[in-house]
Amino acid sequence: MSASIDWAALQQHAKTASLQAYAPYSRFPVGVAILAASGQIYTGCNVENASYGGTTCAERNAIAAAVVAGERQFQALVVYTPQEKLTPPCGICRQVIAEFFTPESPIASCNHLEQLQSWTLQELLPDAFTPMYLQASQKV
Ligand code: THU
């Protein structure tokens, strides 16, 4: 893990965000903190919907909050769930993370037992489809 990243601060922010989770259907609260290249931390929680497909994950809500604040590049992401099994980002979120994070970016998961596991984005989503492929295409 990168030495310059304050993992304890990211874990605390992710945990605090999870307390705002709106998860009446799954009862699976999730909080996420992301560190922007600017040094700023942004957070998100999952927001569920009675029409279940309308649910948005904590990861995507954190990224949306950062993007609306003007951020485009990020250094690290931490997921918090109060679960014994450390939770990695879901498949849809991995794709959205790949839009803004480099393949080497650390993506970590932590829980109420102070456990922390980290992967690189490359490990979670190898050979990701990224904006680079669209730029290389001949638009018709
Ligand atoms: N969830 C997230 O917020 N992030 C993930 O990476 C995994 C799943 C949420 C969606 C839903 O509200 C609940 O967890 C159960 O799937």
Uncertain regions spanning at least 5 consecutive residues: none
Oligomer: single chain
Average pLDDT score: 95
Distance between the termini: 42 Å
Name some characteristics of this structure:
single chain; 140 residues; alpha+beta; five-stranded mixed β-sheet; 31% helix; 20% strand; globular; binds tetrahydrodeoxyuridine
Report on this structure.
With 140 residues, the protein is α+β, with helices and mostly antiparallel strands. It contains five helices and five strands, in the order αββαβαββαα. It has helices at 7-18, 58-68, 91-100, 121-124, 131-136, and strands spanning 31-36, 41-45, 74-80, 106-110, 116-120. It has a five-stranded mixed β-sheet with strand order 2-1-3-4-5. β4 (106-110) and β5 (116-120) form a beta hairpin. The chain is globular and about 45 Å long. It starts with 6 loop residues before the first helix and ends with a helix. The mean pLDDT is 95. The site of tetrahydrodeoxyuridine (THU) has 13 residues, from α2. Tetrahydrodeoxyuridine (THU) is lined by residues 23, 26, 28, 30, 46, 48, 55, 57-59, 89-90, 93.
